[in-house]
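Cross-check.
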Amino acid sequence: MRIHVVSDVHGRVDALARAGDGADALVCLGDLILFVDYADHSQGIFAELFGAERATRFIGLRTAGRFDEARAMSAELWAGLGGDPREHLEAAVRRQYEQIFAAMPTPAYLTYGNVDVPRYWEDYLRPGQRVLDGATVEIGGLTFGFVGGGLRTRYRTPNEIDDEEFARKVEAVGQVDVLCCHIPPAIPDLLYDTVARRFERGSEATLEAIRRTQPRFALFGHVHQPLVNRTRVGRTECVNVGHFRGRGTPFALEW
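Predicted model, tokenized:
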């Protein structure tokens, strides 16, 4: 069996369409949409609605840790669109999801990222695309467990949840061969982004489950440029499968 695994797609429709080539199935660990692009400020929903110059200013405020100012700027821009700002945002998100799910190969097994909006997914899923969150599935004789979403942060991304809710999903997955999460286990080297120069949040519950149940692999994304992209916890190989928007190539898992 050969499984291709992607995470942090962030609108990379062209490469996603080819991500299943040569594989028996695709696993996607979330973050499908692109709200802002820290590398190319002209890309993403924010730039689409407000222009690259304003996106550059917004990204600069967030990068500097001036989140209250960034939120105030964003609120003013959304109010200036007229009508209900939520309708403008929903329309932009739905346009991206329509393109992404149309391009995604099948069979595909998916879970949510922290920037995803889960309530929209059902409207765009195609036959052969299956969403799992706090649940397991057998693929090629191995049991895969899926835990989606992120933990609460100062960034306030759409799909952040409480630590307790995240831990309940990890517990529901139980003993598996391959543990698939959007965010990494709480190991500092896996959490530090060398370009953004900051630590992202990882899950203590996931790390505890890895230590206790020792799956063959723990796969995740979320940190785009990690200090290290893999490490071991006992017999478990913990692997960041890569920033798919930047790399355009999936991680291959074979057995």
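The chain has one domain: 2-33+106-254. Residues 8 and 131 are 16 Å apart (CA to CA). Passed to J.P. for a second look.
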